[in-house]
Automatic annotation (TrEMBL):
Protein name listed in UniProt: C2H2-type domain-containing protein
Source superkingdom: Eukaryota
Keywords: Metal-binding, Zinc, Zinc-finger
Protein's UniProt keywords contain Lyase: no
Domain C2H2-type, residue spans: 85-111
Length: 111
């Protein structure tokens, strides 16, 4: 049996649609946005623009975490969209692709 060595295809959930809970004043956005389109959505719909080091308050409903703009997308993914990277071998889920890759290297060496 020949096993082809090729990169594992990791199934991301980034095609799922999420409802945007960004608030402007008292109004919650509520648009359905694909996870992969969120950076563009936050830019164009909510004015998340400026230098990467500029500090910004997350407008997600009930969040108000202050952070640098460069961290906002990761923050929204992890805290609000709950994007998960499942391990292709054991299906344990991770919030970061990087952590998932470390897990594979540790737990499933040789894959
Ligand atoms: Zn929105
Ligand atoms: Zn937030
Ligand atoms: Zn695993």
């Amino acid at each position: 049996m020949t096993k082809l060595l090729q990169p594992q295809r990791v199934s991301l959930t980034s095609d799922d649609r999420y409802s945007c809970r960004w608030t402007t004043g008292d109004v919650i956005c509520n648009s359905y946005v694909r996870a992969s389109d969120f950076p563009e959505h936050l830019r164009s719909a909510h004015g998340v623009v400026g230098a990467d080091k500029a500090s910004l308050v997350c407008g997600w409903v009930d969040c108000f975490t202050k952070m640098r703009k460069e961290n906002i997308m990761r923050h929204v993914n992890e805290q609000h969209l709950e994007l998960r990277y499942p391990c292709p071998t054991c299906h344990e889920q991770f919030t970061r692709a990087h952590t998932m890759q470390n897990h594979i290297a540790r737990k499933h060496p040789g894959n």
